[in-house]
Amino acid sequence: MPRKKIELENHVESLSILDADGNADESLVPKLEPAEMRKLLRGMLLARRYDERMLKLQRQGRIGTYGPALGQEAASLGPAYVLSKNDWMIPSFREPAGMLYRGWPMDKLILWWGGNETGSSVPEGIRDTPICVPVASQCLYGAGVAWGCKLRGDGTVALCFVGDGGTSEGDFHEAMNVAGAFNLPLVCVIQNNQWAISLPRKKQTASSTLAQKALAYGFNGIQVDGNDIFAVLTAAGEAVDRARRGGGPTLIEAVTYRLGVHTTADDPKKYRTEDEVEAWKCRDPLARYYKYLKKHGILDDKARDMMEEEIAEEITAAVEKAERYEPDVLEPWRYCFATMPNFLEGQLEEFQAYLESVSGGEGRSNHKRSELSENVH
Ligand SMILES: Cc1ncc(C[n+]2csc(CCOP(=O)(O)OP(=O)(O)O)c2C)c(N)n1
Ligand SMILES: [Mg+2]
To answer: Is 0.90 surpassed by the pTM of this model?
Structure first.
């Protein structure tokens, strides 16, 4: 039995098109009309301003918690942008840019962070799953949905997002294995934002890239500058096309940075330096893209100011709408299953009987959610 080398396809590509000063390799810039280029900026700007407002709302006690996606707008918007309406998206909780672009009403996202289950009900016409916190579970849903796409044979694809920390979970590996073995139309985007709460990327894996994990599962992996909207669009566009043509899954590692807190319960000063954050601020995806648009006469300061005004109004209207929402204590039963399983129906009946009993026969509407939540968990 000789000892010999097994030749593997042992490389992953790395892609960067637009640098931090707004200069691009024009031969690689995706062919987009100026209106589309402006739309991309608007999508990122909307997510950025939404993020900032959400942090303020949380600090004012108007929503429970928030996990900002500051700095990750390009990595979220780019993959969502290349999907068609009939494709499927499985977000984590740092995808406001992608979700807003896909048509999720902003007030729904605000309500989700306010603890209202209605935030998890998928609006008519949107083929996405709701905001999803369990780390790496998105990969399992992604593989399952992609399998469904394949069985239906309708040419649709699934896109899921996971964090760098999520790649250490068994869920990620099981999902990637299935995606490869079944040649599923799945695009998995790793938002490598360098941190999983306080654990740095280098402690997640001994691999030099996260993209190379794809090789073990027998499909394509690519590492992109996740703060470069052109690179993200290009890699995601190629991956979606390949999946649609039956070419199987792709793993995209979007190298980016979480500029803000992990969530509003976190203080990142305890585990990372200001210098590190400042260095990444210079690579801001929005700033560099705006520089590019300005240099090419696609957008100027005046047009951007108008965009800012419109966005501010849109966000204010969404906050007002969310705050007018009358919470419904039966919401947790409503949105999980198309047909409610028996065990849940039993729980619902029990809960309704409880509501009747505490309302003294006057109906549950006399009781506020806060009163009930002390007793019901
Ligand atoms: C299965 C599971 N374990 C733990 C948590 C708590 N948790 C929430 S986010 C997070 C870190 C995730 O890091 P990463 O995957 O890099 O995503 P990021 O938060 O950086 O976007 C952890 C441990 C969780 N939500 N789900
Ligand atoms: Mg992370």
So the answer is: yes
